[in-house]
C-alpha cells in the first residue's frame, strides 16, 4: 500500500465533512443576506456572496497545501511562524487601513487582509511547541510567565488597533493551559480582574480601592496571621494587593482609550452607568438596535422558518452587519428553530470530534494544538451566538466558517486543517 493511500485512510474525514457542511451552509446564508435584484450570478465579484465563493475556492487550495506539507514542519517552524505573526500585527501601525475606527487590515487591491486571524494560528503553534518541550514545567513560575508572554503579546498588539473583540479570543488559551496543569489560581485571578473592572466602572475607583484595601489586608491578617514572619508569602500578598490597586487605577484609562465609543455605550447600558434619562435613552436606541433587531428576526422564524431568501427582516436590511457578526440571524429567520438547532448541532459535533481526536494524540504538541483549536472555535461560537440572541453584548467576534470574510475563513481553515494533518500523522508520532 502506497504512503499516499495510507495517509488518505488516516485522515479524519468526519471533521472534514463537518467543515464543508458548515462552510456550505454559511455561504448559502451569506447569499441570502446579500443577494439583490441587480445581482448577476454566483460569481459576481461585486457582491459579498461572490467574493465569499472566491474565498472558499482559495480555502481548498490552502487545504491541499496544508495536508501536503510534512507534519513535523508545523512544530519545527512554529517559533518562526509566531514571529512572523507578531511582525504582521506590528506592521499595521505603518501600513494598516482604518475601517470603522480600527486599523486592523492590510489593503490588497479591492480586498483586505486581517492579520489577527492568522496570528491565532501562530500563537497556537508557539504555545503547543513551548508546552510540549521536555524541559517545560507548567508548575514552574518562570515557565508560566513565558507561556503568558506567548499568549498575551498578540492581543496587546491587537488592542491598540483597537480591536478588543479579536483580543478577547486569546482568553481561550488559558483553558488550554488549565487542561495542561496550570494552577487554578490563575483562573480565579482572571475572574477577579473582570470583577474589579466591572465594580470600578460601577462605583468608581476610590471606593473600589478602599474596599480592596480592607478586604486585602483582612485576608493577609487572617490567612497569614501565623506566617507573617515568612517574608516571601507576605511580600507576595502585598505585591498582589498593590497590583490590584494599580489595575483599578488603570480601569478608567482602558475604558476611555482602549475601547471605542460603541463599546463604552454597551458597558454603559448593561451596567447602568448613565444616570441622565435622555442620554440613556439615546444610548439604548443606538446600542440596543442591533440586538433587538436580531432577536426579532430570529423570533419571527418560528419553528420551521420563512424559507430560503424569504426572510423579511433579512431582505429589509433591518439587522446591521448581517453578513458578518449577525449572520446567524438569517439562519434563525429563514430556517427557524429546526435549522438553527441543526447548525448548532454541527458546531458542537465538530468541537466534540476535535476534543476526542486531541485526547488520542501521542505527542503533546498535537494534543495541545488540538485543544487550542477546540477552545478558539468554542469561544467564537459561544460568544457570537450569545451576542446574537442577546445573552452577551456585541463585541465583533465572527461565527467560524459562517461570517463573511476571507481572512476569517482562511484563518479558521488553516487552524483546523493543521490539526487534521497532525492527527493523520499520529501513528508516526512515537
Attribute tags:
transmembrane, 3% strand, 19 helices, 3 strands, transmembrane helix, single chain, cell shape, FtsW/RodA, 430 residues, mainly alpha, Rod shape-determining protein RodA
Overview of this protein structure:
With 430 residues, the chain is mainly alpha-helical. It has a domain at 3-155 and 291-428. It has 19 helices and three strands. It has helices spanning 3-10, 13-34, 48-68, 71-76, 78-90, 92-95, 115-132, 141-159, 164-168, 172-179, 185-203, 205-223, 231-258, 261-271, 277-300, 312-315, 328-359, 364-388, 406-424, and strands spanning 97-99, 102-108, 111-113. It has a three-stranded antiparallel β-sheet. A hairpin with a 2-residue loop joins β2 (102-108) and β3 (111-113). α11 (185-203) runs antiparallel to α12 and α18 runs antiparallel to α19 (406-424). The longest helix has 32 residues, at 328-359. 36% of the residues are buried. The mean pLDDT is 79. Keywords: Cell shape, Membrane, Transmembrane, Transmembrane helix.
Amino acid at each position: 500500500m502506497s504512503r499516499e493511500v495510507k495517509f488518505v485512510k488516516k485522515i479524519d474525514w468526519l471533521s472534514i465533512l463537518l467543515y464543508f457542511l458548515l462552510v456550505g451552509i454559511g455561504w448559502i446564508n451569506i447569499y441570502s443576506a446579500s443577494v439583490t435584484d441587480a445581482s448577476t450570478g454566483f460569481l459576481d465579484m461585486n457582491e459579498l456572496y461572490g467574493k465569499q465563493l472566491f474565498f472558499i475556492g482559495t480555502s481548498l487550495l490552502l487545504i491541499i497545501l496544508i495536508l501536503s506539507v510534512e507534519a513535523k514542519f508545523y512544530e519545527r517552524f512554529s517559533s518562526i511562524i509566531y514571529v512572523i505573526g507578531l511582525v504582521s500585527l506590528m506592521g499595521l501601525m505603518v501600513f494598516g487601513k482604518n475601517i470603522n475606527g480600527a486599523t486592523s487590515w492590510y489593503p490588497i487591491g479591492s480586498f483586505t487582509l486581517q492579520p489577527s486571524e492568522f496570528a491565532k494560528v501562530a500563537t497556537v503553534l508557539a504555545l503547543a511547541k513551548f508546552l510540549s518541550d521536555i524541559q517545560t514545567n507548567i508548575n514552574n513560575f518562570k515557565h508560566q510567565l513565558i507561556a503568558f508572554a506567548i499568549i498575551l503579546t498578540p492581543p496587546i498588539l491587537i488592542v491598540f488597533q483597537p480591536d478588543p473583540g479579536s483580543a478577547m479570543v486569546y482568553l481561550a488559551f488559558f483553558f488550554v493551559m488549565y487542561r495542561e496543569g496550570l494552577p487554578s489560581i490563575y483562573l480565579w485571578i482572571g475572574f477577579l480582574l473582570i470583577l474589579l473592572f466591572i465594580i470600578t466602572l460601577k462605583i468608581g475607583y476610590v471606593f473600589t480601592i478602599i474596599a480592596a484595601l480592607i478586604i486585602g489586608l483582612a485576608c493577609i491578617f487572617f490567612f497569614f496571621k501565623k506566617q507573617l514572619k515568612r517574608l516571601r508569602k507576605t511580600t507576595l500578598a502585598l505585591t498582589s494587593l498593590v497590583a490590584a490597586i494599580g489595575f483599578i487605577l488603570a480601569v478608567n484609562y482602558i475604558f476611555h482609550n482602549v475601547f471605542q465609543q460603541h463599546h463604552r455605550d454597551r458597558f454603559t447600558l448593561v451596567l447602568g452607568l448613565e444616570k441622565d434619562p435622555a442620554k440613556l435613552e439615546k444610548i439604548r436606541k443606538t446600542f440596543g438596535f442591533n440586538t433587538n433587531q436580531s432577536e426579532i428576526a430570529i423570533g419571527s422564524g418560528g419553528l420551521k422558518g420563512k424559507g430560503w431568501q424569504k426572510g423579511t427582516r433579512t431582505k429589509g436590511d433591518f439587522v446591521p452587519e448581517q453578513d458578518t457578526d449577525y449572520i446567524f440571524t438569517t439562519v434563525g429567520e429563514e430556517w427557524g428553530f429546526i435549522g438553527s438547532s441543526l447548525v448548532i448541532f454541527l458546531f458542537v459535533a465538530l468541537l466534540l470530534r476535535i476534543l476526542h481526536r486531541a485526547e488520542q494524540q501521542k505527542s503533546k504538541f498535537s494534543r495541545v494544538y488540538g485543544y487550542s483549536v477546540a477552545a478558539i472555535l468554542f469561544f467564537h461560537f459561544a460568544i457570537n451566538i450569545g451576542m446574537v440572541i442577546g445573552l452577551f453584548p456585541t463585541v465583533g467576534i465572527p461565527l467560524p466558517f459562517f461570517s463573511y470574510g476571507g481572512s476569517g475563513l482562511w484563518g479558521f481553515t488553516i487552524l483546523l486543517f493543521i490539526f487534521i494533518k497532525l492527527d493523520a500523522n499520529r501513528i508516526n508520532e512515537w
